[in-house]
Design brief:
The structure is a homodimer. By secondary structure, chain A is an alpha/beta fold. In chain A, 52% of the residues lie in helices and 9% in strands. The first copy, chain A, is built from 18 helices and seven strands. Chain A has helices spanning 15-28, 52-62, 72-75, 79-92, 108-119, 121-133, 138-151, 162-176, 206-216, 228-241, 247-260, 263-266, 276-285, 290-297, 304-316, 339-352, 366-379, 384-393; strands at residues 3-8, 32-38, 66-70, 97-102, 182-187, 334-337, 399-400. Chain A has a seven-stranded mixed sheet, sandwiched between helices. In chain A, strand 2 (32-38), helix 2 (52-62) and strand 3 form a beta-alpha-beta unit. Chain A is globular.
């Protein structure tokens, strides 16, 4: 079986995801689609609106054959690490392709950009240095140096679009690690990644869908942007759990933690740098809501996303020691599969059997222990019995497409 | 002015407290009554059902002239420390008497017991040793040795009643420290301290009142056990804050903390001994509610009260370093006063001015910093804006009787 790999968050699975899935299968003629999915917390440092099991169900219902978990320690990271860890996992899964959406829509510029940047490291680093001497920040200086190089190489990517950037990191991970997986890009259609408003057609960004859902909680207002099965699964989740998970719900935990933990202990949290702990404590003292708090702590340097990731680490109590040096997966954990996905896993057993996690409860991989913690933290805003229920779910078998 | 000191929790202030207050003033003919009161968390390791400001208002409305805060680090402690710290504070306040309720009702046996125990340390320690050799636990062996001594001294106290024990600790603190404050005991009337059911007369235990309130939240069912002013203050609190504070509400914080903190860090919490952290973590993994959890961890050795105190320390992040070696107060903090109480404080200024805390916000006493933390933790179950409000309240002036 030929497999197309997708790097996904499905928060929640919507028509745009369906289009991407269908196009990925059509353009590669793959037999199955495999999704590497972030678990309960996402790359931008947010709790998933519904937990990973519900999101796995949506993916399977829409036609993904296999959902494998991207561990927390790799998922809640800046784009570069996130992308490389996901690609390495797809490679272990012996995917033939990785299919990613991009504004660009053509794979050549991704490959060319990697090669050109590699050939011109001196050029870019010198230009960057000079821009920094002019007073620009490091990322800004790098962007300007990149633009300088692009002047004479029109085939280079336009790197100011979020999916182009992510795609570039996928391609770069493949070429850097000399992997056998082949990159394929699908032209994005409909809404931009960050668009916050709902469009007139049937494709809206997940951001806009979440915004609408969490504002008034009415599923019917976003139904036209979702496959029917996603709608049903979201409906059942809400009925059972009584919530859509948002940062605002976790705010009491964050606030109490900031106001009861000594600054020296907070300093031990992963990515808590440059006295940030004092800035957070002082903002927590004067903020009633998460929005208040974020508005107070956010700066150009400490972006919203970076702060959200930091607060996720704080909630989860992630320290430097928890983050592995290697991005290569230490295990493969299946969250769900279709019959075809199951057969694919069976065939993978010969070569990758040692990596397949069949009994999570029996494992003592520290990365998996953090996954358990993540399930606990994500569930901490549920009614007590539901929290308890989700906690136990963590040790149960994958979701099977009925 | 002559002052009668009372050691109180007023959780909430009820008719039994009114009787004790009236009797204390009548029997001593004191000009004013001063209450040393636990703040937001109580001796038995419980969140106060309403915060210290509401409880101060109830006390003032009922006729107490001055309410002074017993700091968290002394209040949430076993009876012996709690009692001694409270007495030392009343002594600094230059109270002429401490008036405590007891089942005994007569002060002589308290004084005699102290003297006799002091004279017979060899006798009791030898007997205790022998009982321990027979396999009894230390507290049980001490109780048996005490009973042995009492056989030949009928004037000794019966120490199996909670208020006799507390009273004995007050008297012992006075005699041990050679204080000038005089102990007076008031015969208790009506319900026992721990009685959980509501009686037919107008005096019910605070335990029974809280149980009824938190079960269905209806103030009218307990109104006959409370002064009208207490009722009004409780009503306003509930209307504003929307809650009665119970352990069950803090349970999500406790659970999340237990499930995200490494055992080695938990070990640093004050009174976390003998691998208790692992016992707590494992119970938290399988408990939906606080009641479930407590039922699982409770043993003969780790009593309900002892565990509640430990969980309070956990919530508050109290470590050994936070607990001062000395029980003597480092400051006197007034929570509220009547006009008479205010005059008394003025007259105290000459001698005790250095101890009087007039601007909490400007102090850097570490014991007071813990008080701020305690206000924060207690308020963490309120709606966000109310939490914020209570947090600020901590730095504002005392309550004045209107």
């Amino acid at each position: 079986m030929k497999a197309a790999g997708l790097v996904v968050e499905y928060n929640p699975f919507h028509n745009g995801h369906q289009y991407h899935l269908d196009q990925s299968l059509a353009s590669t003629k793959a037999d199955i689609a495999i999704g590497v999915m972030s678990g309960n917390f996402l790359q931008r440092g947010e709790p998933a609106i519904v937990n990973k099991w519900a999101r796995t169900k949506m993916a399977l219902a829409a036609g993904v054959d296999l959902i494998v978990e991207l561990p927390f320690v790799h998922a809640v990271q800046k784009a570069e690490y996130f992308a490389e860890a996901a690609i390495l996992l797809l490679e272990e899964l012996q995917c033939d392709w990785v299919c990613f959406g991009s504004e660009q829509g053509n794979i050549e510029p991704f490959l060319d950009t990697y090669t050109l940047l590699k050939e011109n490291t001196d050029f870019t680093s010198e230009h960057a240095k000079s821009y920094m001497n002019d007073g620009h920040s490091y990322p800004k200086a790098m962007a300007l140096a990149y633009a300088e190089l692009k002047k004479t190489h029109s085939n280079m990517l336009t790197l100011d679009k979020p999916n182009n950037i992510l795609g570039y990191h996928y391609v770069s991970a493949i070429l850097k690690n000399k992997l056998s997986i082949k990159p394929v890009t699908i032209q994005r259609t409909g809404s931009g990644y960050h668009d916050a408003d709902l469009p007139l057609n049937s494709i809206a960004s997940a951001t806009a869908i979440r915004k609408e859902l969490t504002a008034d909680g009415r599923l019917q207002d976003v139904a036209r942007f979702l496959p029917r099965t996603s709608c049903e699964i979201l409906h059942d989740y809400q009925e059972e759990m009584q919530v859509w998970h948002t940062w605002e719900m976790y705010w009491p935990y964050v606030k109490l933690k900031l106001l009861t933990t000594p600054p020296d202990t907070l300093k031990g949290i992963y990515e808590m740098k440059e006295g940030l702990e004092n800035r957070l404590i002082s903002a927590a003292q004067t903020s009633a809501t998460f929005l208040d708090f974020m508005t107070k702590v956010k700066t150009k340097r400490y972006t919203w996303t970076r702060l959200q990731r930091l607060l996720t680490y704080l909630l989860m109590n992630i320290t430097n020691n928890d983050i592995p040096k290697e991005l290569k997966p230490t295990y493969i954990r299946v969250l769900g599969f279709s019959q075809k996905g199951r057969e694919y896993m069976q065939s993978l057993k010969k070569e990758k059997g040692h990596l397949l996690l069949t009994r999570p409860a029996a494992s003592n991989d520290p990365i998996l222990a953090i996954e358990q913690r993540s399930a606990n933290v994500h569930a901490s805003v549920l009614p007590p019995e539901m929290w308890q229920h989700v906690q136990k779910r963590e040790y149960q078998p994958p979701v099977m497409l009925p």
